[in-house]
């Protein structure tokens, strides 16, 4: 038996992450509650170490490891970098809130890092089994994180709902994958694609499997009609966990769709396109309309997520590299915006007070003009008003759909994004035109404000010159899929 | 009759009889022990088919872990036998029809054309199938195997985080408080009226 490190070297980032999270788990034993800050520092260091491993692996080619089950291509590396940076922001934003609510424990960071590991595994999976294991790792960690605030009834209820529905979705997905395995005789993603392209398999079995796979994807993404868990989970979980749920897993969901639908079932584009059209139409419609009726910002952002996932699907259903790159740009910009939005919601909370009602935004401009301006940027971006990064994201997916020949879909999406602008602009109105209900100063720490500022700056700059991020996405997709 | 057929007959008879014992024994502990016996004979049958890994796994996992746990539970719960037997006749029609359905399905499977196509493959590689499985698991499938291990670790962390952190009702002793206790705190004398005679 020979063993060469080079055979597993492409998976170095994942290995580094797993080792450092195990170290964190051990070192945390010697850190008492007063010095828990060191755990936070260690968690950030783990992210940096993993990031260095990702960036060092950058060599532009597609490499596989672990007998073809692991793939490291340009898309995987770019998405890994996105996830790591976002995770760093998630840790930083949630620090004060978690400290205040007894969540600032070693497990909080270990579970988050496990979830990140699951995400990275999904991003570079080249085998159905690995894809599924990554998904389970993410779901399990996420479920534990949601339930972490055990005294809270809402959190427990949200975790229960998430657990049951994610088990159901995993079942559907596995059933679909087993159908595909039965039809093609392999679980390796490129081999599945080859087997389907050979055109010797009964399409009925493939489509049957595909339906279940798409249902699994719909759940993961939170697209209508598989969206039921999103509002409850967003509202019920502690805001620091909502911040996570609303950001990094969306990157994984994008990678998941690309690996499954494009990587393995690319030849069946005419079969999955109509399914995605239905999901996109329903998500954009329901998300934007129901969000108007919400009084809780977390719930409102949950419905806004549903609609954003609809827009994300638009790019994918275009069925070509331009569309996939547009979707990738959409998910990247959405994650940047979403992290900032929940970072600001966290800022409004203080000891014994959750700043998660829309009324809590009243007169924010008087209390803190800086934070109010950041929220303005976020809301403008979410609504997709030019010039903002959200506008360019919507523009790129819509132009991809237009090229694919779905003019009615573009008109529909634009109308609903106008409807959606109402509830985003309402927040701006609350912040700038209403009187504050409280004159309590915002409780925060300088690093949170600096990072929010940085985050806002990124949103602002990308709104003026989005080309660099677009190019990054286009290059990543073009290098990974020809 | 060759020795293999003879052995098979012996094991098969014991298996069927012990399986019958599981459902007819009046005492649940006996029923569990019958189940252990049927697992053992089942694994002996697998051993005869040269599937030694499955045979050993059955004994280790089911007999060694699952059934022992089961026995503990049965012994500790002190199950009321008569209540378990209530409604036997009421549920009999449903149970019998399910059993009949399963028998019909089994006959359909065994008598189908696909089943006749099945052939047995003998192990020609010269190594035991435990070794074969090990090689496959630690070479080709090492990545998912390690991931499954990581998921188990995650499950442990999650379970401990959710159940043992900051639990108000968990009982533990604080030695410092025990040592510093005063006599007046240990005993409290209260006055109460003498009991009336009945």
Q: Output the number of helix runs of chain A.
A: 20
Which ranges of chain B are low-confidence, i.e. pLDDT below 50, for 5 or more consecutive residues? none
**Could you tell me the radius of gyration of chain A in angstroms?**
22 Å
What's the quaternary structure here? heterodimer
The percentage helix of chain A is over 70%
Reported for the largest beta sheet of chain A, the result is: 2 strands, antiparallel
Largest protein-protein interface: A-B, 31 and 19 residues
Describe the structure.
With 482 residues, chain A is mainly alpha-helical. Chain A has helices at 12-27, 37-56, 74-100, 106-123, 128-146, 153-184, 189-197, 203-221, 229-236, 239-245, 248-264, 269-292, 297-317, 321-348, 364-367, 369-383, 389-403, 407-433, 446-464, 467-480; strands spanning 63-65, 70-72. Chain A has a two-stranded antiparallel sheet. The longest helix of chain A is centred in the middle third of the chain and has 32 residues, at 153-184. Chain A starts with 11 loop residues before the first helix and ends with a helix. The mean pLDDT of chain A is 91. Chain B is an all-alpha fold and 198 residues long. Helix content of chain B is 74%, strand content 0%. Chain B is built from ten helices and no strands. At the A-B interface, helix 1, helix 4 and helix 5 of A face helix 8 of B.
């Amino acid at each position: 038996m020979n063993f060469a490190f080079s055979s597993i070297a492409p998976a170095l980032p994942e290995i580094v992450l797993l080792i450092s999270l195990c170290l964190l788990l051990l070192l945390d034993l010697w850190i008492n509650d007063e010095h828990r800050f060191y755990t936070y520092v260690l968690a950030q260091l783990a992210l940096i170490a993993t990031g260095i491993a990702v960036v060092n692996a950058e060599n532009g080619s597609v490499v596989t490891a672990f007998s073809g089950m692991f793939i490291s291509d340009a898309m995987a590396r770019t998405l890994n970098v996105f996830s790591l940076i976002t995770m760093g922001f998630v840790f930083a934003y949630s620090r004060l809130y978690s400290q205040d609510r007894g969540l600032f424990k070693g497990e909080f960071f270990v579970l988050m890092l496990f979830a990140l590991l699951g995400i990275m595994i999904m991003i570079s999976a080249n085998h159905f089994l690995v894809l599924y294991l990554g998904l389970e790792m993410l779901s399990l960690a996420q479920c534990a994180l949601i339930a972490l605030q055990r005294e809270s009834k809402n959190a427990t209820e949200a975790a229960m709902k998430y657990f049951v529905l994610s088990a159901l979705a995993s079942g559907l997905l596995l059933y679909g994958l087993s159908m595909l395995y039965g039809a093609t005789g392999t679980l390796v993603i490129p081999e599945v694609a080859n087997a389907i392209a050979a055109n010797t398999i009964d399409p009925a079995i493939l489509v049957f499997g595909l339906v279940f796979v798409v249902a699994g994807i719909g759940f993961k993404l939170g697209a209508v009609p598989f969206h039921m868990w999103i509002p409850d989970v967003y509202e019920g979980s502690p805001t620091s966990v909502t911040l996570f749920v609303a950001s990094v897993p969306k990157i994984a969901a994008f990678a998941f769709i690309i690996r499954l639908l494009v990587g393995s079932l690319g030849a069946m584009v005419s079969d999955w396109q109509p399914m995605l059209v239905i999901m996109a139409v329903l998500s954009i419609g329901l998300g934007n309309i129901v969000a108007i009726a919400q009084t809780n910002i977390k719930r409102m952002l949950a419905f806004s997520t549903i609609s954003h996932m609809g827009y994300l699907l638009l790019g994918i259903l275009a069925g070509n590299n331009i569309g996939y790159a547009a979707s990738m740009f959409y998910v990247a910009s959405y994650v940047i915006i979403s992290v900032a939005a929940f970072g600001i919601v966290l800022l409004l909370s203080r000891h014994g007070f959750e700043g998660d009602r829309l009324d809590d935004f009243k007169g924010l401009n008087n209390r803190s003009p800086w934070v109010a301006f950041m929220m303005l940027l976020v809301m403008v971006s979410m609504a997709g008003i030019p010039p903002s990064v959200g506008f360019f994201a919507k523009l790129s997916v819509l132009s991809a759909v237009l090229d694919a020949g779905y003019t009615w879909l573009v008109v529909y999406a634009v109308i609903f994004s106008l409807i959606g602008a109402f509830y985003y602009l309402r927040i701006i109105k609350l912040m700038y035109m209403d009187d504050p209900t409280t004159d309590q100063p915002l409780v925060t720490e300088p690093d949170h404000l600096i990072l929010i500022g940085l985050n806002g700056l990124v949103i602002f700059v990308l709104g003026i010159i989005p080309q660099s991020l677009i190019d990054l996405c286009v290059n990543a997709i073009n290098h990974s899929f020809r | 009759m060759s020795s293999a057929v003879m052995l098979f007959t012996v094991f098969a008879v014991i298996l069927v009889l012990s399986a019958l014992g599981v459902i007819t024994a009046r005492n649940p502990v006996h029923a569990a022990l019958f189940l252990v016996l049927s697992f053992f004979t089942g694994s002996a049958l697998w051993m005869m088919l040269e599937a030694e890994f499955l045979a050993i796994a059955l004994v280790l996992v089911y007999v060694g872990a699952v059934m022992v746990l089961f026995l503990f539970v049965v012994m500790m719960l002190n199950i009321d036998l008569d209540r378990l037997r209530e409604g036997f006749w009421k549920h009999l029609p449903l149970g019998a029809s399910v059993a009949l359905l399963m028998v019909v399905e089994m006959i359909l499977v065994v008598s189908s054309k696909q089943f006749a196509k099945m052939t047995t493959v003998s192990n020609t590689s010269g190594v035991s199938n435990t070794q074969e499985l090990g090689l496959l698991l630690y070479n080709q499938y090492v990545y998912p195997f390690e991931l499954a291990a990581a998921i188990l670790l995650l499950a442990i962390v999650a379970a401990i985080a959710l159940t043992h952190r900051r639990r108000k009702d968990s009982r533990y002793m604080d030695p410092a408080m025990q040592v510093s206790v005063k006599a007046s705190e240990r005993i409290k004398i209260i006055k109460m009226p003498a009991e009336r005679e009945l």
